[in-house]
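User:
Can I borrow your eye for a moment on a structure tokenisation matter? Would you put together a sequence-and-structure record for a protein of your own picking? Please set it down just below, with no commentary around it:
AI:
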Amino acid sequence: MALITWSETLSVNIKEIDEQHKKIVGMVNELHSAMGAGKGKEMLGPILSGLVDYTKTHFDTEEKYMQKFGYPQYPMHKTEHDTLTKQVMDLNTQYQTGKAVITVTIMNFLKDWLSKHIQETDKKYGPFLNAKGIV
């Protein structure tokens, strides 16, 4: 069973960004499935590394649009991106140094991080960018 189920409540109504969000949801669900199958420890490294890399790419996409069209909440959104990136990078570093173990706490962090960021922060720029012709 998936940890996060994609639904329209997660959509920002911008195809490129929704597709990126779906990919991140898929990565988190992949880790959750591996954990359920008892393979979480061996899957954590590759998935976390991929999540760090892809999250940076995704945030760059969002920030590019925000800057291009003068999104008024860009500075606050950028700060949140920086904080989230650091948290995922720290988690990856802990794993690489042998300090992180997959736990329900880590999975809940990833679920909450993704769901809350999309629903509470990303949803705000959707209508703004839609009005600028980005769909």
Summary: The helical segments are 15-36, 40-69, 74-96, 104-131.
